[in-house]
Specification:
By secondary structure, the chain is of the alpha/beta class. Helices cover 26% and strands 23% of the residues. It folds into two domains: 3-57 and 197-288, Urease, subunit C, domain 1, CATH 2.30.40.10; 68-188, TIM Barrel. Helix 5 (149-157) crosses helix 6 (166-181). The radius of gyration is 20 Å and the shape is elongated.
Length: 301
C-alpha cells in the first residue's frame, strides 16, 4: 500500500499520558493507518523525525480567533505555527454570533479589542451563516464554536440595563436553541474579563515542561490534546492511534520556544518543525504552507 505520509523515527507521545517511545507513523487519506517501530511501505512524503517529538495536534479551548480567518495571512498562521490544530472560539460571552451589520454597531465596537477588527464590513446572522463564511474564506486550522450569551443578549435588547421581558427571553432562547441545533458546542458566559489573544503552547512546553519541569512532557501533551478532545467529545482527534484523524505536531523539545510579546504578536516560535492537519502537511520545516486544510467541527449531540 502506498501511503501519503510516513513520519519516521520520532519520539511518539500519543496524548493519553502514556510514556513516550521511538516509532514511526503512516498516514493515508487523512487518517493514521500504521504505528510501528519501522514502516516498510513507500509513501508520497517521508518526514525524518529523528530527535523530534511526535504528538497529537494541540487543542486551544479558549480562543478569541473568531475573526482571524478574515485577517492578514501572518495572523492566520499564528496558531498553526504554535502547533494548534483545533481551537474553540466564541469565548467569554464575547463572540460574533449573532452580529448583523449596521452602520454603527455598538456590539462590534465593544468586542473589537478582543476579537479584532478585520478591514471589511462583517456580520453573521446565525451560526450557519458564520460557518459558511469562514469555510468559504478558508481555515488554517480546525474550528469548534460556542454561542455567546452577551452577543445574543445585545442582539435582542442592546445594552439596556434591565430585566428582559418574557418575549425577549423567548427570543434569546430561540437564538441559542438554533445555534445548538446547528452544531455549537455550548454557550459561553463572561461576567468579568482580562483577555489574551496570543497565548502560546510553545511557551508552555519550553518554560514549564522543559525548563522548570513543572509537568512531564507526557502529562503536558495530555492536557493540551487528549483531555480537551475528550471534554469536547471529539473522538477522532487528541490521540495518536490507528484510525484517528492525522492532526500531528512534530517539534524539537530541546529548542522549542515561544515569545509572549504583545507588541510583536506575529513573532513565530522556534522549534516547531512540522504540523500535519487532517492528513496534510500544513507546516513544513517551520514554514506554513499556503493551502487551507482546516475545517469546522459541529457538535452532533
Amino acid at each position: 500500500m502506498m501511503l501519503d505520509i510516513i513520519i519516521k523515527n520520532g519520539y511518539i507521545v500519543d496524548g493519553t499520558g502514556n510514556p513516550s517511545y521511538k516509532g514511526s507513523l503512516g498516514i493515508k487519506d487523512g487518517k493514521v493507518v500504521k504505528i510501528e517501530s519501522n514502516i516498510a511501505e513507500e509513501a508520497l512524503e517521508i518526514i525524518d523525525a529523528t530527535e523530534l517529538i511526535v504528538c497529537p495536534g494541540f487543542i486551544d479551548v479558549h480562543s478569541h480567533n473568531d475573526l482571524v480567518p478574515f485577517m492578514d495571512e501572518n495572523i492566520q498562521n499564528l496558531k498553526l505555527m504554535q502547533g494548534v490544530t483545533t481551537e474553540l472560539v466564541g469565548q467569554c460571552g464575547l463572540g460574533v454570533i449573532p452580529c448583523v451589520e449596521t452602520e454603527n454597531n455598538i456590539w462590534k465596537n465593544y468586542i473589537r479589542g478582543v476579537v479584532g477588527d478585520p478591514p471589511f464590513k462583517w456580520g453573521f446572522s446565525n451560526l450557519d451563516d458564520y460557518i459558511n463564511q469562514i469555510t468559504l474564506k478558508g481555515l488554517k486550522n480546525n474550528f469548534t464554536i460556542l454561542i455567546s450569551h452577551e452577543a445574543i443578549k445585545t442582539s435582542v435588547m442592546n445594552f439596556d440595563s434591565r430585566i428582559p421581558t418574557k418575549e425577549e427571553i423567548n427570543t434569546m432562547c430561540a437564538i441559542a436553541e438554533d445555534a445548538m441545533k446547528s452544531g455549537a458546542f455550548g454557550m459561553s458566559i463572561g461576567l468579568q474579563y482580562t483577555p489574551a489573544i496570543f497565548s502560546t503552547n510553545d511557551f508552555f512546553i519550553g518554560k514549564f515542561v522543559r525548563d522548570k519541569k513543572v509537568l512531564s512532557l507526557e502529562n503536558a501533551i495530555y492536557k493540551i490534546s487528549y483531555l480537551p478532545a475528550k471534554t469536547l467529545d471529539l473522538k477522532d482527534i487528541g490521540e495518536l492511534a490507528v484510525g484517528k484523524t492525522a492532526d500531528i505536531v512534530l517539534f524539537d523539545f530541546k529548542k522549542i520556544k515561544g515569545f509572549e510579546n504583545y507588541f510583536k504578536p506575529t513573532t513565530a516560535p522556534i522549534g516547531m518543525k512540522f504540523v500535519i492537519l487532517n492528513g496534510n502537511i500544513a507546516v513544513n520545516d517551520s514554514v506554513v504552507c499556503q493551502s487551507n486544510y482546516g475545517k469546522v467541527y459541529r457538535n452532533n449531540k
